[in-house]
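User: Hey, quick favor. My workstation is busy. Could you predict this chain's structure for me?
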Amino acid sequence: MAFDVGIAWRALSFLMTGWLALFFGRTLRPGHEALITRIARVSEPGLPPQLVLYTRRLTAVWCAYFVLAALLGLGAPRAAAWSGMLVWSGTALLFLGEHWLRPHLFPAHRFPGVLQQFRDTLQVWRPARGKAP
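Assistant: No problem, here it is.
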């Protein structure tokens, strides 16, 4: 049996985006703090309630996006070539679009730059040893 690169790529795409959907989605359960809220609290521990709600909704948007991306990754074999590109460009568009939109929705609030956001995300995703995530 020959190794089919297209099937392997679709499976990997589905597994990665499906894992991200679960990773984001599990933080939306009742009684849990949404993933993006936790990331935002690294730079601003006293996050205002309206931003807590916003970051929770944003976590849900990312979760839905990853579910859609996972399903897209299972598309027809001919779709495999463009589905990966669509997922990456959609991810960049969603990230950059939200980064642009945020100050317009909350003009009185000062947000961290992209580099600080990246550091905050790493801190939440890879907590120091001995600290709970």
